Amino acid sequence: MPRQKLSEYRAKIIISKALGLPYKGWSVDSSLSLNSQLQEAASADSSFVVKVDEGVKGRFKKGLVLLDVQHGDLAKAVKILSDKGYRWLIVEPMDSHVPTDERYLGLLSDREGLTLQYSTIGGVDIEQHAESLKRVRLNSETDWGHLAAETGISDKQLQQLAAVFAGNYFVFTEINPYLISDAGLKMLDAAVEVDDTAAFFVDNWDADDLRRHTGHNLTQEELNVQELDANSPASLKLSVLEPDGSIFLLLSGGGASVVVADEVYNQGYGKQLANYGEYSGNPNTEETYLYTEAVLKLLLKSSAKQKVLFIGGAVANFTDIAKTFAGVLQAIEEVADKLRAQQVKVFVRRGGPNQEEGLAQMEAVLNKHGLLGAVHSPETPLTAAVTEALQGVGHE
To answer: What is the pTM of this model?
Structure first.
């Protein structure tokens, strides 16, 4: 169950609708023209809060929340945050209040079910008041009336919150802070994590609502893979860590990607790791071709003097190795001359259905173009194959 962060904008729309609360806010893509995006906000009778909306924790302390922004300064505020490397922002009317009125509410799921945690202390310093948190396991014996009295949120709304949590495949929800007044519940900030594999089963959110911050404006290759992932039942993820890195990964399966990245770091090559990601869920040949093409473009643009490409994964249960490797090899052959000119070596360790055919094709093509580092079946441990590949680059 890959956990991903939902945009605050989408999370608030979903929760507000379920709880019968009004919500006014605007999602802003800072890479696009702001006129149409901020037109409605500019006509609102209010000052505004402008925040980064990329699932970043501790935004206020990091200077990623701008308060009391006036109409004429909205574009300037957006530029301030986008210049720090953030694309997605959320703009909302400013709600002035006393900090001591802030409260905290959270929901999290585990194998045992759903847990509610709450506190009469909320806001940016909640972690310093961990002792104030109360936790209750939600089940058929839950005293909703008691929780309503404790949280200030009606028993009906609390039950609706639990229902929307389950119905939208949330795995974590945090409303911090929220306010309680005569007008009822007011959410100031909300954070939601979802099971991203549920994007095909829900109507209230989709892959375009997922957020992750990479620390930089997304490269065209990352954007291309995001679009590819959004239109495929397979999972295709790509994050650039170091554009001028020397170690490039083309990994299949989330578990294998974690193992390989950890091994690279454990052996002292972390600063040279160029990218992270994975393709899984039995992508077709065209999808693996496009994914590999994106990784190879990044590799060829890197200024590192020594480069290796590691193509790896665990032993697949149903992903056809020969079929996926066909797409990988198509992309490699298209730029083989450029790869050879940069003295790139390719190391492979993979297993699964049709592995003999796939590995044989891989070795033959790499050998033909002078790119062969080594090709291994599952008989070679994944970590051993990584160690071998790292010998192709030196410590920097």
So the answer is: 0.60
